[in-house]
Design a protein that fits this description.
The protein is of the alpha/beta class. It has helices at residues 18-34, 48-57, 84-91, 102-116, 130-136, 150-154, 174-187, 201-213, 229-240, 276-289, 310-313; strands at residues 4-12, 38-41, 59-62, 74-76, 96-98, 120-124, 144-147, 164-168, 219-223, 245-249, 265-270, 290-298. Helices cover 38% and strands 20% of the residues. The strands form 3 sheets. A 5-stranded parallel β-sheet has the order 10-9-11-1-12, sandwiched between helices. It has a 4-stranded parallel β-sheet with strand order 3-2-4-5. Helix 3 (84-91) links the parallel strand 4 and strand 5. The chain is flat.
């Protein structure tokens, strides 16, 4: 029986960003340097496949530092941690490696600079997300006010409306964040913004690629984890650009094939913490069921690379 023809549009860029790639390398190099087990506070990146793969190599994932023995190294996830965490590790005389993405660290440095200048911070982010917790934890309690929507801006009660600055979580929707920034600037005209956009290059690039694909397809699949902020934003971007069926899938076995019945064109992308192996798996699943024509929609090329910490580059 002949397979139904289908055009598969692959987004480029997609998948791993430089910060995620660096964080995974840090865990692998730590296991190589110190042997297993290596402890990792929180999922190193938000992807079950990646976490399970590292667990098989000897990584032990915990939520809090007190779950780690003091005689084994611990790694802090790419999302960043509050200042209290490395302080506790030092107090316990633990070996630790900080895998915080350098672009998240940039936001931390920015927040501290504004704090030294006497400004109270407003953070645009998602409550409870590890990056938001880590960034807010760089400053004393009460010094960072969190807003998630433009409506939240109206409820803000800053210490001094004339002495404010704002920062953002790096994995947000570019378009939604613009609306919140506009609301902040309208209510607090003196508010100070970042010198450079806080939303990271990879988040922006993946959203732009989805915007280019969405009008061409009847459905779009985002490969990523439910707790991955940047992956969930890709689904939202696709829907806002007119692709009514946009879904998040962890792996090929999560695809709802019934929902795709009758579709002649489908888009595929991957969040910044999803490996290309999972993209290949999804493409193979489509080839099993359809006569696939592949098209890549490339909106930009990335050549960013971040070095791992010196302690891992040094020989034991």
């Amino acid at each position: 029986m002949a397979k139904t023809p289908l055009t598969l549009y692959l987004a480029a860029p997609r998948g791993f960003c430089a910060g995620v790639d660096r964080a995974i390398k840090i865990v692998e190099m730590a296991i190589e340097k110190w042997g297993a087990p290596i402890y990792v506070r929180h999922e190193i990146v938000h992807n079950k496949f990646v976490v399970d793969s590292l667990r098989e190599k000897g990584a032990v994932f915990v939520e809090e530092l007190d779950e780690c023995p003091i005689d084994r190294p611990v790694i802090f996830s790419a999302h960043g941690v509050p200042k209290a965490v490395p302080a506790e590790a030092e107090q316990r005389k633990m070996i630790y490696v900080d895998a915080t993405c350098p672009l998240v660290s940039k936001v931390h440095i920015e927040a501290e600079r504004h704090h030294r200048n006497g400004l109270q911070m407003v953070m645009i982010g998602h409550a409870g997300h590890p990056e938001t917790i880590g960034t807010m934890g760089q400053l004393p309690e009460g010094e960072v006010l969190l807003v998630e929507t433009a409506a939240d801006v109206e409820r803000l009660a800053p210490r001094d409306p004339e002495r404010l600055a704002f920062i953002t979580q790096t994995t947000l929707s570019v378009d939604d964040t613009k609306d919140i920034v506009a609301a902040l600037q309208a209510r607090f005209p003196a508010i100070v913004g970042p010198h450079k956009e806080d939303i990271c290059y990879a988040t922006t690039n993946r959203q732009e690629a989805v915007k280019a694909i969405a009008p061409k397809v009847e459905a779009l699949l985002v490969i990523g984890a439910p707790n991955s902020s940047n992956s969930r934003r890709l689904v939202e971007v696709a829907r806002s650009e007119g692709c009514h069926y946009a879904q998040l899938v962890g792996r090929a076995d999560e695809i709802d094939w019934r929902a795709l019945e009758g579709a002649a064109s489908v888009g595929v992308t991957a969040g910044a913490s999803a490996p290309e192996l999972l993209v290949d798996e999804v493409v193979a699943a489509f080839r099993d069921r359809y006569e696939v024509t592949m098209k890549t929609v490339e909106t930009t090329r990335e050549n960013v690379e971040f070095k791992v910490p010196r302690v891992l580059r040094e020989t034991a």
